[in-house]
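Thread: sanity check for a docking pose with VHF

Original post by kr_44:
Hi all, I'm comparing my docking run against an independent structure prediction. Below are the sequence and the ligand SMILES. Could someone generate the full complex and paste the structure tokens? I mainly care about where the ligand ends up relative to the chain.
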Amino acid sequence: MSAEQWQESRKRLAGAKRWVIKIGSALLTNDGQGLNRSGMQSWVDQIAALLAQGHEVVLVSSGSVAEGMTRLGWKKRPEQIHQLQAAAAVGQMGLVHAYETAFSGHKRHTAQILLTHDDLSDRKRYLNARSTLRTLLDLGVVPVINENDTVVTDEICFGDNDTLGALVANLIEADLLVILTDQQGLFTADPRSNPNAELIAEGQASNPQFAAMAGGGGALGRGGMVTKVRAATLAARSGADTLIVGGRIENVLTRLRAGEVLGTLLLADKEPVVARKQWIAGHLQTHGELVLDDGAIKALRDGGRSLLPIGVVAANGRFSRGQVVACRNQQGELVAKGLVNYSRDEALKILRTPTSGLEQALGFVAEPEMIHRDNLVVL
Ligand SMILES: Nc1ncnc2c1ncn2[C@@H]1O[C@H](COP(=O)(O)OP(=O)(O)O)[C@@H](O)[C@H]1O
Ligand SMILES: N[C@@H](CCC(=O)OP(=O)(O)O)C(=O)O
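Reply from moderator J.T.:
Ran it for you. Here is the predicted complex with VHF included:
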């Protein structure tokens, strides 16, 4: 691939609306010596500039264990899981405090979100986390996400916030996942042990060659490049591109936004919405069904609109929020499939209900749509 082609792909980054930025332990903690506050201030300043340019940013930040070790005066990373968990709990306070302080200079609020992989594999919790994150983004708040180390142990063992970053990119349908790390990007081999290794500028996330080049990580984060390349393939499932890049490069985020060729860009094969719709269309097993009136079918087919409760005349079978349901016309023909925002019991309460009546009928409003158009495949 030519340098001009790389340049072209990088120019497109300015158009990526929603960014997930993951910062690893090695960077955040000056290789274990407390929090790297000047680095943090610089990334925060750059993120504030991205927000001012109309981008949305979710931060996935490691560093709690390393900061906890410093606060507790521990020189060596403990072996015992419960000690690591304790360090993470202590360090998380320092981490969020540092972000809150740095962002307050830009008059931006931050929000702490602690997640586990399980939260994201349970459809209901997935949708709840998604609604909260979307609301925070709408409010202009910067969510700061880390693993909930008190209740899970896999990640502090494997240093796998890279995977969490990818799952968050899936969750909020991000356009771009940026993984900031202590190397310039993905090299043909681990540059720590192979001085002839070359930096890869660009490739498809699905290319299996990259996984073969990636090795393990350092003493702090420990995920290494393996988890970063795997994260790129996960992010690609919802259509997000991934950039693995050196966080110590001066003004790295600003320069990426300006189209400079830095780090390694691993491209998704499909656009985000297309990828998600294919996933929905491929779901043979639907849970229950909604029966739509003719007006709703027309809005879906001709207008590419979301399905609103007012156009739903019946809800059959059993389904819960976040499952794929079949949408049929009143003659029983399948017209669409989609991820439903309400359980069957809730749906029954809001059949034929206008948006303005949802709160009275339900006592709350999860979303105004029964199925959002991004989560709907019209057949
Ligand atoms: N092919 C590769 N290219 C670049 N770095 C690699 C490669 N294989 C292994 N690594 C190692 O991965 C490390 C980064 O991963 P890690 O220590 O987990 O960082 P982070 O804390 O940012 O997640 C690098 O310091 C490097 O030694
Ligand atoms: N939750 C832990 C995760 C550690 C982790 O994943 O580290 P890294 O591989 O550097 O991103 C922490 O904050 O220390």
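The mean pLDDT is 90. Hope that helps with the comparison, let us know if your pose agrees.
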